[in-house]
Amino acid sequence: ADERKNMKEFVPVSFESFVDRNILKRVNHCVSRPIISPPTVEVDVLERTSDDGNWHFRLTGRKTRCINLASYNYLGFAENEGPCVDATAHALQLYGAGVCSTRHELGNYRIHEELERTTARFLGVDDAITFGMGFCTNSMNIPVLVGGKGCLILSDEKNHASIVLGARLSGSVIKVFKHNDIDDLEEKLREAIINGRPKTHRAWRKILIIVEGIYSMEGSIVKLLDVIRLKKKYGAYLYLDEAHSIGALGETGRGVTEYWGVDPGDVDIMMGTFTKSFGAAGGYIAGSKELINHLRAYSHSTLYACSMSAPVAQQTISSMKIIMGEDGTDKGKLRIARLVTNTRYFRQRLREMGFIVCGDDDSPVVPLLVCVPAKILALVEDLFERNIACAPAVFPATPLTEGRIRMCISASHTRQMLDKVLDSISEVGDRMQLKYSL
Ligand code: PMP
């Protein structure tokens, strides 16, 4: 009964803002379905223009190409030709597309080990383990790291669904702290230490704080220095999901630890995905040898899931090496610099126009608050008509009244493309009265 009570404490944030779930159900019922289930974009093929070297995509059934702000292609490596493609195609010829086995059976290729060594080197930690899917990296491994009696998870209210699932599966007591709110996190930690475990008043066996580098719906950057200060003060462990920040933050793309000048060793468990900045698929956990050996032995993802496709591993290795400059060029450096310039320019222009833009200046995730649910779809569709693709972020991914469109900036966007997007948004924004201050 205690366990069930604890589970109840952890409800997704969008639900939390509603006092009565029945009211929520009714509200849900009233808004038209397309707003709840945003239209999916069918992507035919990634295309690359011959003149500017930047990619667009063609939508199924449409003749025109769209400027893509809907994907997380931060460094532009999700291209169909370019520096990684030859090696990836070669890996396909060498190994085939599928491994058809787990790491513990016959699915441990040399390329998997190379990817893990490269990832650990890139992050500046002892070791790393990789998995075929980013979502499962969280949901299947959090229960292997923490769980059972006496474990407490302190989770940011905006954490991704894969973290929420992993935390629930772990069977730990879960407390949610306000988004990026250091005072609330400290209050929850103090409460946990002073009051001990409910009923027994014994100390917690393990306290795990879980945060993200960049929050994908908010565009906010974690206040990592403060979180590390608190985890040390209260003897907790720290799990950091860098799905959106690895490659996209820091002078050399090392993520949010580099961005804040933090020693990676201060983060106990570094998690990230290869689906964004590396233009590939899968995820990693990195940290001490002891941590990684534990996961190699006990992770459900290693024991029972097929290992990563070899061409995908190769794509990740190639893009990571370019970021590190190990291809002997400064292409990686240039991509990182271009992402920063594009991000700052785009955010600043939107703000100057009078839009409400969420998140931190250096975050390439740019959510533009629309609030009125009916306007979100209209805005996205209007932009589609102008060959601009961006994603609607609506309930339940956001609270019902905080719907937004989310745009992701890429190093492969040109200034010309960004200007076209900005001009279009400005025009539609005027018509829909989305500008709040001038
Ligand atoms: N963590 C975070 C913070 C995410 O945003 C996502 C998905 N975008 C994931 C994990 C899951 O990763 P993947 O899409 O690579 O499975």
Descriptive account of the structure:
Its cofactor is pyridoxal 5'-phosphate. There is one protein chain. The protein is built from 17 helices and 14 strands. With 438 residues, the protein is of the alpha/beta class. It folds into 2 domains: 31-80 and 330-432, Aspartate Aminotransferase, domain 1; 86-323, 3-Layer(aba) Sandwich (Aspartate Aminotransferase, domain 2). The strands form 3 sheets. A 7-stranded mixed sheet has the order 4-10-9-8-7-5-6, with helices on both faces. A hairpin with a 6-residue loop joins strand 1 (43-48) and strand 2. The longest helix is centred in the last third of the chain and has 23 residues, at 331-353. 4'-deoxy-4'-aminopyridoxal-5'-phosphate is lined by residues 133-135, 138, 160, 162, 212, 216, 241, 243-244, 273, 275, 283.
Sum this structure up briefly:
The protein is of the alpha/beta class and 438 residues long.
List the helices and strands and how they pair.
Layout: H1 2-9, H2 13-16, H3 21-30, H4 33-36, E1 43-48, E2 55-59, E3 65-68, H5 85-95, H6 110-123, E4 127-131, H7 134-145, E5 151-156, H8 161-170, E6 173-177, H9 182-195, E7 206-212, H10 224-233, E8 237-241, H11 256-260, E9 269-273, E10 283-287, H12 289-298, H13 300-304, H14 310-323, H15 331-353, E11 365-371, H16 373-385, E12 388-389, E13 391-393, E14 403-408, H17 415-432
Parallel strand pairs: 3-12, 5-6, 5-7, 7-8, 8-9
Antiparallel strand pairs: 1-2, 2-3, 4-10, 9-10, 11-14, 13-14
Helix pairs in contact: 5-14, 6-14, 7-8, 14-15, 15-17, 16-17
The protein binds 4'-deoxy-4'-aminopyridoxal-5'-phosphate.
Residues 133-135, 138, 160, 162, 212, 216, 241, 243-244, 273, 275, 283 line the site of 4'-deoxy-4'-aminopyridoxal-5'-phosphate.
